[in-house]
Amino acid sequence: MVSRVATIAFAGIETVDIEVQVSVTSGLPTFMIVGLPDKAVGESRERVRAALNAIGLALPPKRITINMAPADITKEGSHFDLPIAVGLLVSMGVLPVEEMDGYLVLGELGLDGSIAPVAGVLPAAIAANAADKGLICPGVQGGEAAWAGGQDILAAPNLLALINHFKGGTALPRPEPRARDAGPPLPDLADVKGQETAKRALEIAAAAGHNLLMIGPPGSGKSMLASRLPGILPPLSPAEALEVSMIHSVAGLLGDGRLLTRRPFRDPHHSASVPALVGGGHRARPGDVSLAHHGVLFLDELPEFQRAALEALRQPLESGRAVISRANSHVAYPARVQLVAAMNPCRCGHLDDPALACSKAPRCAADYQGRLSGPLLDRIDLHVEVPAVHPLDLAHTPPGEPSAAVAARVAAAREVQARRYAGTGITLNSQADGPVLEEAAALDGPARALLVEATGRMHLSARAYHRVLRVARTLADLEGGVPLTRLHVAEALSYRRLMPGRAAVSA
Questions:
Q1: How far apart are the C-alpha atoms of 132 and 426, rounded to whole Å?
Q2: Cα(345)–Cα(303) distance, rounded to whole angstroms?
């Protein structure tokens, strides 16, 4: 007799159906796992054996063969422990064959028979629901699985509880969907003294998901401003929360089984490698650009990042997807992020202050900013200077406008965009392109003439032309969706000026 248990493998946030086949036949006592298992799957033999011994069951002294079909797909991860154990329990007559056919199973076994959390329970629950199957998963992740809406979810804390449920002893309760607590209050924009231009740019960026680059000396408040962006962004919609949580689930970051409710904010260190930033590694895990999906990716000290890592961001910023290529497969993760970057104008950071600038200015600024490629800078909609704060501003400026007031304007602008792009698959101006953008902009004669003239004089690329148009449309939306005018175009163009160091050298 061959028992069969359904489980899955992962290709990004997509799932691949896997069938665990268990054969117990006469012969010399062996325990073999075939079907391209990786190291973690191969070691599951000892975990399964110890877990069964812990609940008073011993493997039969026969030839045990575990096949994972299809055999040409590499099986990675410890979540195959529980399907293997369940298949063995079916073959041993402990669990009913008929009932197990209707479940998809995943979980890692402890040596004491406990079922430990694994990555990917949320995508697995969605796959099970789509296949009209129930789900058997670790007990602490039942709340995560319940968000998929499946009718039959068994969140078992250990093997014994699972066996007792099917034997009619103690029934496992149905888990309830759980969301992550709101957590501590987000930093408030009212704490920022001065920097009105930068705060204006931050509001524009939040209103339509525009990418933002802040350039200024050390201590001018660039990181402080970036940390306050999540406080003016609207909360995740239910669909967005589910999509973001799926990525975090595959990455193993939803260990408590609670879905995210806040937009993610990722701020990797500038020593981050390409796989850490974009995704990859042995098991093609999502990187920070995907973990920040529908949220903010903050890169402080932008020129200090590895050149290869920054260049790898160009494709995700343009397409909203991070594609990880392997010899035998391509894995894609969603990566619709809002990039916020901060940098000093030069290595010493005091390019515009003769009293503090180093002796190599302005050549050092050109060398420092030359680490950033033109194509990467072209993908950043808003370039804003953040000058040093004057001592009088620090001492006497009253608290500024609170985040709640700015967030209300941002929400209103996003509502205007949602109505405009209804039915197009686009939600924000930063995603609009082609005829959709031209129709949304509806430039009058003076506004179009200014944009065309500025494009020639500033040597803007076609991409930069359209990004200026998007920002101008956002400026009009912050005023309630009024028609786009020459003033909106002029302000949008002011955020595309040359970086200070490059302008100084060229002059």
A1: 31
A2: 10
Element (H, E) at 465: helix 462-477
Let me know how many helices (H) and strands (E) the chain has, helices first. Answer: 23, 18
Q: Which two tokens stand for residue 217?
A: 């000396």
> In terms of DSSP H, where are the helices of 191-287?
196-208, 222-227, 238-250, 274-278
How sure is the predictor about 488, in pLDDT bands with cuts at 50, 70 and 90? very high
Extended strands (E) in 145-202: 153-156
Whether the per-residue pLDDT at 15 is higher than 80: the answer is yes
- Helix, strand, or coil (residue 497): coil
The pLDDT score that the predictor gives to residue 357 is 66
Tokens representing 196 are 């009105």
- Tokens (6 digits) for 456: 């020639």
d(CA 170, CA 503): 74
- Predicted pLDDT at 361: 67
Q: Specify whether the CB–CB gap between 503 and 493 falls below 8 A.
A: no
Please confirm whether the linkage preceding 187 is cis (ω < 30° from 0). no
What does pTM read for this prediction? Answer: 0.89
pLDDT above 70 covers a percentage of the chain that reads: 95
Instruction: List the Cα angle 246/251/254 in 5-degree steps.
Output: 65
- Write the pLDDT tens digit of every residue in 37-72: 999 999 999 999 999 999 999 999 999 999 999 998
DSSP classification of residue 431: G
Cα angle 92-95-96, degrees, rounded to a multiple of 5? 110
- Cα 250-428-441 angle, rounded to 5 deg: 155
Residue 273 zone, left/alpha/beta (φ > 0; ψ -120 to 50; rest) = beta
The reported pLDDT for the residue numbered 354 is 67
Rounded to 5 degrees, what angle do the CA atoms 318, 323, 329 make? 155
Residue 54 exposure: Cα atoms within 13 Å on the Cβ side? 18
Structure tokens at 163: 């066996």
